[in-house]
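Quick start: what a row looks like.
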Amino acid sequence: MKNSQLLLVFLGLVFCAVGCKSQSEDKAVLKTAFSDKFYIGTALGRNQIAGNDTAALRVVKENFSSVVAENCMKSENIQPQEGKFDFSMADKFVDFGEQNNMFIIGHTLIWHSQAPRWFFVDSLGNTVSRDVLIERMKNHIYTVVGRYKGRVNGWDVVNEAIVEDGSYRNSPFYRIIGEDFIDLAFQFAHEADPDAELYYNDYGMDNKGRRDGVVKLIKRLQSKNIRIDGIGMQTHVGLDFPSIDEYEKSLSAYADQGVKVMITEMDVTVLPMPDPRVGAEVSASFEYKEKLNPYKDGLPDSVNVIWENRCLDFFNLFLKYQDNISRVTLWGVNDAQSWKNNWPIFGRTDYALLFDRNYNPKPVVDKLIRLAEEN
């Protein structure tokens, strides 16, 4: 072979290598495909925040543009004893988000569940007064939000305070303070960081009663000039609940109030629910039965098709409202991490997220990317 031919072959190999590398680097992933639509986020658990689950962190860095703390910022973890705060995991979570240029969400400031018992009682175990609980709530919010002022982009200020009929949940916050505990929580959060976005977050947001109650809440806060930037629709859904039509009615109703809408805790379970009325009540628990864990040896193709179509239906709706939706967050990185494996029945095998147990993207991920590119 002549020197000139060898040169051409060499240059061809070089160009091919460069071209192949560029093609690989330029391959669309979730966060780039949706970059001009809304943030694509995920929840980080303790092992990921601590840096132990390196495979999950690789997936997060490559695919997601927003992160939320799954548990480490809940009050029972961040202030287990009055005045004794543990920011070790929360600091690592915020550091990770900053290092990877992500939109960081703090979850959650005021929630009746996963709250330490001391919050509501005195040293003798008696229920505290309204003034004492307000002061404890204020101190908690000021300390947590103040620590991350200018670093955490948005906060789930109040979580799950409205029930299915639109009335207020009979939580300790409501019983001791009254409905204005929500007003005060938003006020304190705004005072602690005037630039942070503030959200109300709840499950079963397709329910008409809760929808009406949340709209009423938004209007009340707005009438008092109390800052509320967005509504979080948790979106823990199944293959046949809720209906897309009812879900859209709620999405539209919240958007009509002039606030952002966020899909905050999305997962799509393939498993049967022992009681459809349970919603996403974290305290719910049912006895294990084999018939309620039908896919422990793998998900049949026929069921996977239904699951994929369900994901695509929801994302089609999200893209329809992309001018109103600021973020879509999956509640976990991969199937093994999903809380749905153990709730409301411990020990089941679910397939609720976009990445499988080996951290590989499911085929639906490419379909979602194409859907975003087409819209």
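That is the whole record. The two ends are 52 Å apart (CA to CA). Confidence is low (pLDDT under 50) at residues 4-25.
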